[in-house]
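Bumping with the actual sequence this time:
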Amino acid sequence: MDAQPEVVVHLGDGSHTPSPIDPARPGTVAADPSADHPFLVLTRTPTDRIQARYLDDGTYELEHTTDTDHRQLFTTDARLVRDILWSWIQRDTWWSDTVAWTTIDPAIVELHALHTELSDMLAGISLMDSATDELDQALSRADELLSDFDLDFGE
């Protein structure tokens, strides 16, 4: 029987959406949030997740979401990041009771979601722009080629 794991692990290199990894069968993908894989997202349900992200300045950003509660933490301590993630996985309340999290205003969360949505839309528009540019180039080339033909068939 192939049951879903309780916690799904997602890894990402920062260039696109993290990809899901089954912790029971990790394959050849690295399983730590190193510089090559700065996103590590652990999810239990769509509304219960924790994320660690390695930032360019050498700090880690941790975010936890449960239903409508959205909390955040910044640290340079990689061991603290490991301990928080492990405590969350084990359902030990240490990560939430002991660590000083900051609650993110729901309006900020909504703005972030809107920013992400608009960024995705703009990426699609820029893809359309490049397709339109290629079509314009092809039509210009066709005009050049057709200008060499004598299209006066009646004479």
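The tokens above came from a reply further down the thread. The two ends are 80 Å apart (CA to CA).
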